[in-house]
């Protein structure tokens, strides 16, 4: 067991765990976060996705000791129930989920792609989402929601 | 003192989603039975097993059919609101927590709608409750039931006198059986059910606040992991428990016939032990030839009758509505794919 300091969704957190523990289990069990989910456990489905340094990371295979000083952003780090982030709002408006288990992968991947390149084409977004599985087959609505958010972002119509 | 599971869930305002893990084998063995409502410590014949009116007029309903993307959390809430003549916001639905809900077996096979939205189970409970409340109101207001109308949980008589649900029964039990002759509200009068509304859990899902069963934590709970065989139908030859001796927090290696699992104090320890446990497996039966797979499927035992809820289709087949319905020359071949394998399964036992 070691004491490890993390910055998650803007807050400093101290946990006392086996340093080999995957970040996902720390987020779920030590910090009580529900955004990242255990899907496959082997970085193949994307349900456990978080953002670090602007990049998507599969938290199910990243030892918590490897996180270091980088801030970790989870799905609940974007917006709240009362004030969802614009990309979450686009998903709400488009009804772009059925069971929703995959949403950390879908929403955070789309956000990371568009943050890095606001001009990203539909094909680039699709390629980025290639490693994210949605078993409900809600892809069309998701792509519609992402496009909606991308257009708002591009045209600067998003609230600050 | 540790809180009971029910209190714990209440405290979290929990919305439970559990993914059923009934193996495919059970499908053919039990047929439709697995979707049915059965007696547990919660008696499905009693109205109080399904529904309660709180002191503040909130309707709490319990269901054994669970939402995992079909939208039945919202639809069942609409059903209860419709039958009780209250707005959706006054209904709290508890899904599939078997400590408090009727056991309705598996949620699958498109059977939730015929099970809970026709004239049995949840729909019948809600209709029974409305009629019971009307009877109570008739007595209290001194007017015949035919003179009473209900809007937003307020029952009003012809004289204008009125009474609220919670004044009739708030936080007390109905102590009634389900009434098989209770009438559903006529579809022509529906105000809530059958209307398109955004799913009630949508914002929670999108913002990462939704609580899947995978996230429910009870103080002192242990974590389990299944150790999967390397191939279909493999059987256990030997399990070397010594191979996980050094895994901290390991509580138990569980072997039941050909099921192998581990239990540990944390998820990480359980995952480690499951990976590390040395199991020797006997080969399973060979896979059917893949180049002649449809032929293989056609030779398998099959159920040719339709589920009872589709009996109208049986009657109609061959009639004017479905000419040639019984002797269709078409033999469609659909690639056999089971997307269900993609579900992350979890369960919680208290």
Short summary:
The complex is a heterodimer of chains A (160) and B (350). Helices cover 34% and strands 16% of the residues of chain A.
3D structure, described in words:
The complex is a heterodimer of chains A (160) and B (350). Chain A is built from 5 helices and 5 strands. Chain A is an alpha+beta fold. Chain A has a 5-stranded mixed beta sheet, with helices on both faces. The termini of chain A are far apart. The mean pLDDT of chain A is 95. Chain B has helices at 5-12, 24-30, 72-84, 112-116, 121-141, 165-169, 202-206, 267-276, 293-298, 311-316; strands spanning 51-53, 59-63, 91-95, 149-151, 154-156, 162-164, 223-226, 235-240, 250-256, 259-264, 278-282. In chain B, strands 1-2-3 form a 3-stranded mixed beta sheet. A 3-stranded antiparallel beta sheet of chain B has the order 4-5-6. In chain B, strand 5 (154-156) and strand 6 (162-164) form a beta hairpin. The radius of gyration of chain B is 25 Å and the shape is elongated. Chain B starts with a helix and ends in a 34-residue tail after the last helix.
Q: Could you state the order of secondary-structure elements of chain B as H and E?
A: HHEEHEHHEEEHHEEEEHEHH
Radius of gyration of chain B: 25 Å
Strand content of chain A: 15-25%
Uncertain ranges of chain B: 1-32
| Major sheet summary line of chain B | 3 strands, mixed
Number of alpha- plus pi-helical segments of chain A: 5
Q: Name the helicity range of chain B.
A: 10-25%
Distance between the termini of chain A: 42 Å
Silhouette of chain B: elongated
How much is the average pLDDT of chain A? 95
How do the helices and strands follow one another from N- to C-terminus of chain A?
A: EEHEEEHHHH
Largest interface summary: A-B, 45 and 33 residues
């Amino acid at each position: 067991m070691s004491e490890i300091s993390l910055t998650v969704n803007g807050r400093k957190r101290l946990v006392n765990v086996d340093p080999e523990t995957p970040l996902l289990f720390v987020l779920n069990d030590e910090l009580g976060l529900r955004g990242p989910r255990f899907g496959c456990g082997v970085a193949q489905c994307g349900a456990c996705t978080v953002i670090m340094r602007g990049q998507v990371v599969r938290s199910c295979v990243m030892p918590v000791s490897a996180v270091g000083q980088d801030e970790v952003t989870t799905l609940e780090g974007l917006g709240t129930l009362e004030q969802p982030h614009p990309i979450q709002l686009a998903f709400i408006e488009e009804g772009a989920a059925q069971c929703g288990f995959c949403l950390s992968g879908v929403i955070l991947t789309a956000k990371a792609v568009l943050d890095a390149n606001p001009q990203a084409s539909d094909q680039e977004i699709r390629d980025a989402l290639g490693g994210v599985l949605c078993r409900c087959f809600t892809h069309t609505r998701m792509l519609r929601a992402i496009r909606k958010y991308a257009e708002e972002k591009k045209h600067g119509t998003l609230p600050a | 003192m540790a809180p009971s599971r029910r209190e714990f869930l209440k405290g979290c305002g929990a919305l439970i989603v559990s993914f059923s893990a009934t193996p495919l084998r059970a499908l053919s063995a039990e047929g439709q039975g697995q979707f049915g409502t059965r007696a547990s410590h919660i008696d499905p014949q009693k109205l109080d097993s399904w529904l309660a009116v709180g002191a503040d007029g909130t309707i709490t309903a319990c269901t054994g059919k669970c939402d995992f993307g079909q939208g039945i959390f919202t639809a069942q809430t609409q059903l209860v609101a419709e039958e009780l003549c209250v707005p959706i916001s006054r209904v709290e639905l508890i899904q599939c927590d078997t400590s408090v809900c009727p056991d309705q077996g598996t949620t699958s096979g498109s059977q939730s709608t015929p099970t809970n939205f026709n004239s049995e189970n949840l729909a019948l409970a809600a209709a029974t409750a409305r009629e019971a409340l009307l009877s109570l109101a008739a007595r209290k207001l001194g007017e015949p039931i035919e003179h009473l109308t209900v809007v937003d949980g307020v029952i009003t008589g012809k004289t204008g006198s009125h009474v609220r649900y919670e004044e009739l029964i708030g936080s007390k039990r109905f102590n009634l059986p389900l009434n098989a002759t209770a009438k559903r509200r006529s579809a022509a009068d529906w105000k809530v059910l059958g209307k398109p509304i955004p799913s009630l859990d949508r914002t929670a899902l999108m913002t990462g606040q939704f609580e899947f069963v995978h996230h429910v934590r009870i103080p002192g709970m242990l974590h389990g992991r299944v150790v999967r065989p390397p191939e279909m139908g493999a059987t256990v030859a030997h399990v070397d428990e010594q191979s996980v001796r050094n895994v901290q927090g390991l509580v138990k290696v569980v072997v039941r016939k050909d099921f192998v699992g581990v239990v540990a104090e944390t998820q990480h320890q359980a995952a480690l032990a499951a990976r590390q446990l040395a199991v020797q497996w006997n080969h399973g039966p060979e896979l059917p030839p893949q180049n002649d797979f449809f032929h293989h499927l056609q030779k398998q035992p099959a159920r040719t009758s339709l589920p009872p809820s589709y009996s109208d289709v049986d009657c109609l087949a061959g009639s004017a509505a479905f000419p040639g319905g019984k002797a269709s020359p078409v033999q469609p071949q659909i690639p056999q794919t089971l997307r269900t394998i993609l579900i992350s399964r979890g369960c919680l036992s208290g």
